[in-house]
Amino acid sequence: MNNQSLETLIREELARARAAKTESVDNMVLSLAKQVAAAVEEEARRIGVNAVVAISDRAARPVLVHVMEDAYIASYDVALQKAYTVVALKMSTMELKPLAQPGASLYGIQFTNDGQIVIFGGGEPLKIGDRVIGGLGVSGGSEEQDAALAAYGAKMFAQLVGNV
Per-residue pLDDT for 77 more than 60? Predict the structure, then answer.
């Protein structure tokens, strides 16, 4: 077998393994949530934010809530609600924000679902392809910091499941 054939064989096997890994993940599991939370915590520490990271499954049920030392008490509920929001509406909270402003099509949505809908940044749906398998909510910094941390977490999730 020549080098070109061997490289082709390796590429095909890696593609099959990646496809199998992606197909096998249809809901958020704790082991995956822990990896995403650890990555977000490391980035939060790097930028100087004491955050709460909440990860939910595809039914918006919490799988993990990770509270960094000295995080705001209020950030706990906010992070959970961001994780709920992104699964419930299948969009990031930053995408939702302009839609929920006065005069926009979803104005007032934050008053539905027992007040669990969050209309500011820090929440990202965790997707494989077009399927939402979980939600990530981050709270503890400014809206921009929370949104950046959530986007970072979604990026790390995509890399972990081979969805890049």
Answer: yes
